[in-house]
Specification:
By secondary structure, this protein is α/β, with parallel strands linked by helices. It contains four helices and seven strands. Helices cover 35% and strands 19% of the residues. The strands form two sheets. The protein has a five-stranded mixed beta sheet, with helices on one face. Helix 3 crosses helix 4. The chain starts with 8 loop residues before the first helix and ends with a strand.
């Protein structure tokens, strides 16, 4: 019978160390999470009015929806008109660079749109847009 000799030193040199690779992947993941902007959905779908002068808006992190029954929705919660300013201030603290977009249903009253816009501006957000459909 032939004897086999096992050399232990040769296998250590062939191992691949993936620890630095994992460190880089986790650092990149943390970077993308920290720098990303999350959008808070309003919670309902609205039928937006048509507009021929619609422009695309970037970095809209606060979405406010006004339904056809004049209900106001922010972050999947129905709120009263008097609570809009407080809710927007709270969301603005989470993302100070973000802007606000109001999605008003075509059948909602314009008075509610104007009141919501006033509440958003009173919360400290000057860059507010009204969402429309392309005509």
């Amino acid at each position: 019978m032939a004897r086999r000799t096992i050399t232990r030193g040769a296998t250590n040199e062939e191992d691949v160390n993936v620890t630095p690779l994992l460190d880089i992947v986790f650092i990149m993941l943390i970077f993308f999470i920290v720098t990303s902007t999350f959008v808070k959905e309003p919670g309902i779908e609205v039928t937006r009015p048509d507009a021929s002068t619609a422009e695309l808006k970037r970095l809209a992190s606060i979405l406010i929806a006004i339904s056809a029954e004049d209900e106001i929705w922010i972050n999947k919660k129905r709120i009263q008109l008097e609570e809009v300013r407080f809710a927007v201030e709270q969301l603005h603290r989470e993302n100070p660079r973000g802007t606000a977009v109001v999605q008003a249903d075509a059948k909602s009253k314009s008075r509610y749109l104007v009141e919501v816009l006033n509440q958003v501006r009173a919360a400290g957000i000057t860059d507010v847009a009204v969402s429309t459909e392309d005509a």
